[in-house]
Amino acid sequence: MNQTARSFRSTLPRFRQSLLVLLSLSTLSFASHAETISVQHAQGTAQVPIKPAKVVVFDLATLDTLRTLNIADVVIGVPETPYPKHLSHFQEASYTRVGSLFEPNYEVVNQLKPELVIVGGRSGPKQPDLAKLAPTIDLTVNQENPVSNVDSNVRLLGKIFDKEAAAEAELKKMHDAIAALKQKASGAGTGLIVLTTGGKMSAYGPGSRFGIIHDVFGFKPAVTDLKESNHGQAISFEFILKTNPDWIFVVDRDVAIGSEGQSAAKLLDNALVRKTNAWKKQQVVYLDSFNWYLLASAGLTAMQENIQQLSDAVSAHQHH
Amino acid sequence: MLIHPGSNPLTSSYRLLLLPTIFLLALSLISISIGVGDFSFSHLWADNDDADVWQLLVISRLPRTLALILSGMTLAVAGLIMQMLVRNRFVEPSTAGTIESATLGILLVTLIAPDTPVFIKMLVAGAFSMMGTLVFMALLSRVPLRSPYLVPLIGLVLGGVVLACTTFVAYRFDLVQSLHAWTIGDFSGVLQGRYELLWIGLLLALLACFAADRFTVAGMGEAFTTNLGLNHRALTLFGLLVVSGISATVVITSGNIPFLGLIVPNIVSLLFGDNMRQSIPWVALLGGTFVLLCDIIGRLIYYPYEIPIGTVVGVIGSILFLTILFGRRNRA
Q: Topology with regard to the membrane (chain B) (predicted)?
């Protein structure tokens, strides 16, 4: 009796141990049985699970697209940054802050144990490091062919989250809007894209980060020899007067310290700019700097809003 | 009775000033003639009704050239005053925490009350740069200075700490790019009505000229100054007020122009020694010339686009600075 009791006592832990091993084995096999697909992203291919429920997103354009496709509830971690209006609910405390737009907080990401991490644009270069923690895809939009990049990104997200029909519908909406804008813009005259910050200005041309205005939406560039540069070319007011564009598209970088376009309008309101066609015809458009600057107009809603703003601006003047 | 020309070193050096003055004026004409708009001097007097050329001159070209000369002159004088007060050749507003403090002031006032008039912003910037410079002086009086190189090092460290705070605030409020625009000097946005604060800087520099002899005395030390019956403390404060005011007007109008207050007074002192009354017009003229020249280069290299003057001065200035540094070492 004593012996049996002892043997029982000694077998109990062993039994418990084997049970644990069994359990862990079953979870392991369960995990490996979860469906994954191989996807192509900006920096290669990655194996990602289908319909992941815990996603960390560093790219605002992707957040925008996920929200537009009604799959934002899978997001658990977002970057610490100012958010545009239509993404403001990501500011809520229920979303874990996982670093800045540029620099992930790897500790926090690791603790969240995400099933998928999405980077893009400013966070794009961190893909290889994040890939060591979780499957990570880079959805950076290449400025050379932004629209086809948005297409493939939206389709990819649709595939991963099983929302392919919704993705196609949104893309069709976008392409229709672009075609309509293109038609209006082609006869609207020349345009110059100006970014203002701290009382200084720089110009952007086709192929630049805001070049979609010329390359895709079809506004004729007022200057054709602008070199591509991520930070534009420093220009003077005389330059604006000399090129005399019919449209001035302004990205006000100082929007954080005032309301939209206010500081830029103050900067541009001077005797030289007042003599340009754009000013005389009231064709100075203050672009939504969040949509253009932070999202690089690569999210579905941002893109739609940008097209809408330009389209409205052109129609307002065609009726005159 | 005839005074032989050249017998008085002061009058002879004033006479020598004619040449650099002419050079500065010539550069000004070149500076005025450069720009993207259609402008030429012959058009001004041509018999046509083209008011545009005059407008371009008055609104854009003249203000820019004046702003350049004013900033160059005043910043160089500010550097000279600081070097006299601290008795160290390697001190100027951007190696003493002055400029960085002014920038912090501008950032804070822009964040808290963005619609504040520029003049008030300048006063706030001036107050901040004054405080920063006072901290620098207080640090100097507490640190045993075994080497003259230690003084600017302390200033650079202080400036670095202030800049770190500024960058942190700017980063938090997504203003890092605007901060860059304030810290790197650039005259591309100068127009009539947008540079006039610089005249206040000139006024301060002129005041300093009148007190030039006193600064020379102050440069010989506190005991010496007190022996001559001058109030060393008041003189130092006045000097700092001038320096802070000038730094604030320049930073708020165009952004910082590095090295200027350091190189120009050093070149002048190599030529004429340390009599401030004698060297002040030279420092002012050379400062204006240097800034004009750098801006012309920045506007031509990449025409019709511009390279900010802060970048041009940074490149040319650092080379000149190193040359002076090694030159002085060899002489000593």
A: Multi-pass membrane protein
Mean pLDDT of B191-212: 91
Spatial CA neighbour of A193 closest among A114, A280, A253, A122:
A253
pLDDT of A19 above 70: no
Cα–Cα distance between B327 and B314 in angstroms, integer?
19
Q: How large is the ipTM?
A: 0.84
Rounded to whole angstroms, what are the CA distances from A120 to A90, A92, B3? 17, 22, 79
Helical segments of chain B, H only = 9-16, 18-33, 41-45, 51-56, 62-86, 98-112, 118-142, 150-172, 176-183, 198-210, 212-218, 222-227, 232-253, 260-272, 276-300, 309-331
Question: Burial level of A6, CB count in 10 A (0-12/13-18/19+)?
Answer: exposed
Give the A window 106-135 contacts with B, CB below 8 Å: none
The CA angle A186-A192-A194, to the nearest 5 degrees, is 145
Q: pLDDT grade, residue B9 (50/70/90)? A: low
Residues B241, B130: contact at Cβ < 8 Å? yes
Could you report the per-residue pLDDT of B147-170, keeping only the tens digit for each? Answer: 888 888 999 999 999 999 999 998
Helix (H, G, I), strand (E, B), or coil: what is residue B154? Answer: helix
Q: Which of B169, B188, B252, B297 to mutate to test the interface with A (most CBs of A within 10 A)?
A: B188
Chain A, 153 to 212: residues with Cβ < 8 Å from chain B are: 197-201, 203
Question: A106: how many CB neighbours lie within 10 A of its CB?
Answer: 15
pLDDT tens, position by position, A224-263? 777 666 678 889 999 999 999 999 999 988 775 555 667 7
- Mean pLDDT of all residues belonging to chain A: 85
- pTM beyond 0.90, yes or no: no
Q: List chain A residues with CB under 8 Å of B188.
A: 200-201, 234-236
Specify whether the CB–CB gap between B262 and B113 falls below 8 A. Answer: no
If one counts every other C-beta atom within 10 angstroms of the C-beta of residue B247, the result is 34
C-alpha B65 chain-centroid distance? 15
Which chain A residue's Cα is nearest to B110?
A257
Query: What length does chain B have?
Result: 332
Task: Find tokens 């690791």 and name the residue.
Answer: A110
Do A50 and A36 form a contact (C-beta atoms < 8 A)?
yes
Which of B35, B36, B177 faces A197 most closely, judged by CB atoms?
B177
CA–CA distances in Å: residue A317 to residues A89, A185, B25? 35, 11, 48
Kindly state the tokens that stand for B174: 């997504």
Measure the CA–CA gap between B36 and A201, rounded to whole angstroms: 15
